[in-house]
Amino acid sequence: MTNATRQIALDTETTGLSPSQGHRIVEIGCVEILDRKLTGQHFHCYLNPQRKVDDEAIKVHGLTERFLADKPLFSKIVHNFMSFVSGAELIIHNATFDVRFLDHELTLAQCNISQIESCCTVTDTLRLAKHKHPDQKNTLDALCERYNVNNTRREFHGALLDAEILAELYLTMTSDSQSAG
Length: 181
Hints:
By secondary structure, the protein is an alpha/beta fold. Helix content is 37%, strand content 20%. The protein contains 7 helices and 5 strands. The protein has a 5-stranded mixed beta sheet with strand order 3-2-1-4-5, sandwiched between helices. The radius of gyration is 16 Å and the shape is globular.
């Protein structure tokens, strides 16, 4: 029996744009893909960032401090999260952003892993899209339109919904028989 290829489409939502300014993750969404098929397995949680959520971030994801106040800290879910993603190839749109935040959270949680790439490989669909479609808009929404991936349920950015959309988009983008103009 051959080893199955396990991939995880992952997205995060945050309090702002930079962990170096103390911004934190407020939501993580992960969707499992096994041998290019969605398995229905996922990891999802909202997190208490223990800080103010920037107004601009709230406009993007709709998650307020009030909603997040009773949610767990990253340090309380880190082991479950790492169990879910370890050994997988993470599929992330604009991976630099999410990886920077994940590494920051891992460091703050003082677990034995401080870099997500020490236990996972990372594929950045933004880089893939820029290579396939140079000089074109390659946001998640633009790619969904280009590849006919339904994202109409997306009123706000949400980590789990965006991970589901990203999984479908990635499978479509990387299908040998699929091309887009």
